């Protein structure tokens, strides 16, 4: 083999190859590298003979010789070592072509590492190739940066590695910054993803309320506290003199009276000046826009979350198709890490298989279908009666509380003062377990039963809330009548004062009456009253929830744990046993409370902050309770990957919470002596006042035209038509997808039939064949004579496992056989070969048993 000798100049530099000539690579490159390796080994031996103490160093140097396996088992040796001056000289002796070839190999290895997942290889081969590629890149990527003119490449390689490491560390940092991720994973490993979905939903609600609190605190509460008038300067920020003696009592503060009532927590504290402070901040406008913007932001976030969940998909597969396949391959919850939960999940899967087998066997039977329908109708009737009774009870209690409001507080007991909150919390505590007991009659799947339970508890909470609102707005109407009479009496007294003062002193410059703010006659301020009722509802609901967990779960678990050894029966297996985590009740409690926050935030700006504290404590308290007091469900089922059912309930609650606020802004007149909208006919007049005084005239005209009913009605009609069109298009796409899936299934069945030599499964073709008289149009099967078999020729190939069935499959014969419905007119053909290993040696001359000569070796 001819090799090209190296030519060096006067300074010892290698000449560059001429243009058009390929750079040395492949065999020539390996020859040169081997020559350098041999030279370095010889030099190391001579140095070892001269200096025996350096033998250890030479052995270390030989170990540093880097070996990389190339293609077809060939080995490439690159003795790069930073500690040896001879190897550094060898590195400098590499030509540009060799560097380019090595660089190309490094890039190929990098590409292999990036695309290794897509290779159709076995896992063992993937691991071997990955290890070799990583070693090659790790060893020779840095070597390319040594020498003259290659520092830039080494710098790029180093920065690329650091960038990759930074991205990986940043992703780990973002994962570590997710709040309560470890707690939720721990709950998920013990109780499955269905229980963990509640805590994920709770964390999402906490983030939403944190943003809402930022809006309310930063744009409403903080400007009023920093730039508004201080406490005691005006009547709306001062406790009346008649209430000052008991304003700091615990019972009064617990009912949010006294100093709490006249604080920044409620609507009546805020002043009605157009601008406040040095920044000329428009507080009334900000209050209205933030109150409405909370609903807009929440709507945007909920819809965006629903769209993201819809893209992730549901549970996969239709429930009616491939039932056992879906159960076999998708039933297990891989996030379970607790042995007890795994045992429960195993038993649940086994039970579900048994139930599915029984269901498949009884699908054709109609014995108990009428009984099941009767029981389901009976259960729904009983639940409707419970819902109607709870609504009537709340309406009765609210009406009774209005009578108590006209009486003296000293004559009322604690229960009579808090009767509304107590009854609503008690209904929310008693009705969900009652619904769950009644739902046993329906015998639904746990996932379907959970949705029915959620819907019923949602109807209970929503009915109770709207019944409470209807009764509360009756009280608001009565307070508005009282405010009118107080306002008229106050205006008459002021007119009398001005008239008497001007007539007595004979002047028109009448000073305002010198009255202390605590002695000013004031109205009932119905907005603050509504806000207090919402805050009391939230606080009472938190108290009942925490006491329920403490008594119903913790005390129950303590009794079962310590009294089980000395009791008459097994407390763990029988009554009362350990409690299970109530997913439906807790989820609906969150949704219900969030609806009250949305409605009450307009009347009590501090309510959002209280809800943030409630959600923060609930995460720690309920995580402790579920890990210490509860046991996994007997039928552990995997939660849906799409939480759109929760989000759908939340979206409905958001819409229903918006209605009372919009009704208040557009219809009811605000109080005349409290709140940022006092002195206005309607609350939305603040926006019109700002447009008229602070914006150009053409913008006011635009708003006037935009609010014209003649434009609003066509716009709404256009939106309805657009929604109808998009819905129709979506249904068309869904139907097209179903048709395509059906066609793909039919094609797959036909392909299986052709492979298995069976009848057609196409129902349409079967019906057409059955319509033919005596199937006269079906062509008879073509008889084919078997080809003659030569003595020395190889036997025909037979499908493994089918040799005993007389099926002779040759290499170039199609597997699709004619329709076997025709009559059989000939005997089956001869077998191609005896059954056995199709890959083993075939009988032939000299190989048969007891005949022929022995085989040659």
From TrEMBL:
GO biological process: detection of mechanical stimulus involved in sensory perception of sound; vestibular reflex
Subcellular location per the Swiss-Prot or TrEMBL entry: Membrane
Any GO MF annotation of the entry: mechanosensitive monoatomic ion channel activity
InterPro entries xref list: TMC, TMC_dom
Keyword presence, Cell inner membrane: no
Any one GO CC term of the record: plasma membrane
Region (Disordered): 1-95, 745-764, 771-857
Organism: Amphiprion percula (Orange clownfish)
Keywords in alphabetical order: Membrane, Transmembrane, Transmembrane helix
Domain of life: Eukaryota
Pfam family, one: TMC
Transmembrane portions of the chain: 212-231, 252-270, 285-303, 377-398, 453-473, 596-617, 645-666, 702-726
Compositionally biased intervals (Pro residues): 835-844
Family (UniProt): Belongs to the TMC family.
Domain TMC intervals: 525-640
Name recorded for this polypeptide: Transmembrane channel-like protein
Record's compositionally biased regions (Low complexity): 822-834
Mode of membrane association: Multi-pass membrane protein
Amino acid composition bias (Basic residues), ranges on this chain: 16-43, 51-62
């Amino acid at each position: 083999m001819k090799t090209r000798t190296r030519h060096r100049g006067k300074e010892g530099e290698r000449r560059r190859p001429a243009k058009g000539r390929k750079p040395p690579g492949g065999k020539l490159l390996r020859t040169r590298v081997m020559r350098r390796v041999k030279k370095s080994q010889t030099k190391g031996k001579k140095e070892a003979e001269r200096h025996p103490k350096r033998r250890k160093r030479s052995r270390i140097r030989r170990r540093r010789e880097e070996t990389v396996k190339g293609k077809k088992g060939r080995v490439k040796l690159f003795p790069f070592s930073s500690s040896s001056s001879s190897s550094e000289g060898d590195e400098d002796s590499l030509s540009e072509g060799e560097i380019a070839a090595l660089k190309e190999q490094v890039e190929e290895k990098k590409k292999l590492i990036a695309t290794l997942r897509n290779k159709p290889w076995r896992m063992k081969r993937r691991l071997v190739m990955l290890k070799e590629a990583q070693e090659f890149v790790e060893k020779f990527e840095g070597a390319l940066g040594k020498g003259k003119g290659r520092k830039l490449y080494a710098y790029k390689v180093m920065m690329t590695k650091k960038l990759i490491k930074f991205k990986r560390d940043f992703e780990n940092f973002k994962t570590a910054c997710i709040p309560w991720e470890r707690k939720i994973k721990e709950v998920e490993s013990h109780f499955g993803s269905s229980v963990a979905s509640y805590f994920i939903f709770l964390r999402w609600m906490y983030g939403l309320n944190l943003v809402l609190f930022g809006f309310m605190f930063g744009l409403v509460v903080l400007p009023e506290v920093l730039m508004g008038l201080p406490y005691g300067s005006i009547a709306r920020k001062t406790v009346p003199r008649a209430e000052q003696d008991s304003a700091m009592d615990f019972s009064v503060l617990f009912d949010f009276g006294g100093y709490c009532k006249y604080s920044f927590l409620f609507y009546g504290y805020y002043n009605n000046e157009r601008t406040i402070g040095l920044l000329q901040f428009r507080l009334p406008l900000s209050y209205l826009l933030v109150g409405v913007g909370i609903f807009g932001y929440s709507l945007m976030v909920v819809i965006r979350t629903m769209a993201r969940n819809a893209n992730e998909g549901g549970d996969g597969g239709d429930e009616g198709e491939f039932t056992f396949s879906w159960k076999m391959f998708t039933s297990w919850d891989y996030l379970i890490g607790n042995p007890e939960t795994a045992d429960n999940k195993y038993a649940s899967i086994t039970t579900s298989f048994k139930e599915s087998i029984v269901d498949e066997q009884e699908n054709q039977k109609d014995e108990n279908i009428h009984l099941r329908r009767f029981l389901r109708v009976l259960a729904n009737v009983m639940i409707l009666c419970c819902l109607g009774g709870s609504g009537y009870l709340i309406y009765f209690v609210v009406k009774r509380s209005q009578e108590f409001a006209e009486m003296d507080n000293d004559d009322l007991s604690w229960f009579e003062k808090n009767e509304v909150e107590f009854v609503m919390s008690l209904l929310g505590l008693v009705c969900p377990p009652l619904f769950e007991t009644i739902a046993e009659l329906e015998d639904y799947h746990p996932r379907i039963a959970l949705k029915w339970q959620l819907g019923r508890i949602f109807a209970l909470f929503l009915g109770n809330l709207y019944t409470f609102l209807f009764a509360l707005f009756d009280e608001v109407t009565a307070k508005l009548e009282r405010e009118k009479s107080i306002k008229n009496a106050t205006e008459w007294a002021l007119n009398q004062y001005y008239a008497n003062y001007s007539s007595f002193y004979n002047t028109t410059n009448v000073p305002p009456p010198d009255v202390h703010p605590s002695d000013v006659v004031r109205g009932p301020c119905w907005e603050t009253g509504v806000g207090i009722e919402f805050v009391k509802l939230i606080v009472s609901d938190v108290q009942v929830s925490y006491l329920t967990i403490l008594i119903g779960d913790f005390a129950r678990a303590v009794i079962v744990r310590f009294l089980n050894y000395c009791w008459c029966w097994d407390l763990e297996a029988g009554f009362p046993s350990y409690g299970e985590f109530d997913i439906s009740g807790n989820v609906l409690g969150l949704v219900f409370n969030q609806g009250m926050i949305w409605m009450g935030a307009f009347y009590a700006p501090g309510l959002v902050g209280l809800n943030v504290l409630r959600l923060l404590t609930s995460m720690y308290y309920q995580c402790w309770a579920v890990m210490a007091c509860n046991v996994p469900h007997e039928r552990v089922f995997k939660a849906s990957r799409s939480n759109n059912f929760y989000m759908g309930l939340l979206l409905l609650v958001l819409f229903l919470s918006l209605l009372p606020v919009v009704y208040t802004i557009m219809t009811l007149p605000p109080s005349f002596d409290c709140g940022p909208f006092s002195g206005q006919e309607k609350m939305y007049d603040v926006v019109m006042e700002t447009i008229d005084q602070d914006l150009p005239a053409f913008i006011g005209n635009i708003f006037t035209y935009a609010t014209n009913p003649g434009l609003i009605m066509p716009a709404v009609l256009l939106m309805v038509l657009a929604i109808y069109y998009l819905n129709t298009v979506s249904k068309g796409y869904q139907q097209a997808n179903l048709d395509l899936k059906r066609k793909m299934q039919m094609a797959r069945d036909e392909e299986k039939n052709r492979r298995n030599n069976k009848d057609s499964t196409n129902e349409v073709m079967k019906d057409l064949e059955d319509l033919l008289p005596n199937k006269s149009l079906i062509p008879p099967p073509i008889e084919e004579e078997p080809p003659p078999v030569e003595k020395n020729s190889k036997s025909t190939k037979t499908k493994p496992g089918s040799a005993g069935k007389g099926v002779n499959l040759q290499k170039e014969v199609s597997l699709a056989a004619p329709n076997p419905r025709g009559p059989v007119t000939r005997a089956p053909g001869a077998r191609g070969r005896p059954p056995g290993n199709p890959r083993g040696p075939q009988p032939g001359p000299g190989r048969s048993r007891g005949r022929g000569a022995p085989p040659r070796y």
